[in-house]
Amino acid sequence: xxxxxxxxxxxxxxxxxxxxxxxxxxxxxxxxxxxxxxxxxxxxxxxxxxxxxxxxxxxxxxxxxxxxxxxxxxxxxxxxxxxxxxxxxxxxxxxxxxxxxxxxxxxxxxxxxxxxxxxxxxxxxxxxxxxxxxxxxxxxxxxxxxxxxxxxxxxxxxxxxxxxxxxxxxxxxxxxxxxxxxxxxxxxxxxxxxxxxxxxxxxxxxxxxxxxxxxxxxxxxxxxxxxxxxxxxxxxxxxxxxxxxxxxxxxxxxxxx
Length: 257
Ligand code: IPE
Ligand code: IPE
Ligand code: MG
Description:
Layout: E1 23-27, H1 31-37, H2 42-63, E2 67-74, H3 82-105, E3 108-113, H4 121-133, E4 140-148, H5 150-166, H6 177-182, E5 194-197, E6 216-219, H7 229-241, H8 250-256
Parallel strand pairs: 1-2, 1-5, 2-4, 3-4, 5-6
Bound molecules: 3-methylbut-3-enyl trihydrogen diphosphate (IPE) (2 copies) and magnesium ion.
One 3-methylbut-3-enyl trihydrogen diphosphate binds near residues 32, 88, 199 and 224.
């Protein structure tokens, strides 16, 4: 019998592998609204968001992106109803436990940014365990921003720089951009060349303010639980069409490239 073969063309083939961002930052947004539109509780949206985390992590690793930072819980998210906060924390424990094997098999290192000391003990312990178990992995680093906010991070960096000045280890005139970089929770990690936010919100929400200084921003109306690899490829293709000028003129850029 004759079977018609369905040929699926993926946007992946349109991506230039030599023009990928080394660091992709994402604000995973819209879980609650996605669930609500289906007549479900918000937590249902968070649970389905995990699937997208898996897809995008895999998609980035397959392409060869070295760093992926996901905004998972902001310092402001503590203001949500207690039940939602604890559901999110439990979901995190669950997910980390389940994904450790996949991270290991795929040679992916887990890291967090944010004050994880304030997370519930079981959540923090699951994270620390996974971080320890994946610390020698080299293919990609997955960074979860947890109890993170950029202003918190900048305050912390300021405090430790001030302490060094106070202790006589550093003189104020020697403070430059590198000093600040070295005191952020992203020390040693390149700035994201691209930041994606899902769900149609057009804001940064206290995310990587210093590090995003020259990032390309990509906003999509797709809700996070619907965000698939193809959506990721679409964002990367869009990014690759942009001209990153860093203050120079377009003519200067074309002469130098
Ligand atoms: C993002 O989805 C997940 C977290 C912030 C933890 P939201 O929960 O913000 O979903 P919306 O924005 O209310 O739809
Ligand atoms: C930002 O999303 C934080 C995370 C994605 C974890 P929110 O949905 O909390 O952002 P705002 O408060 O609506 O800007
Ligand atoms: Mg939101």
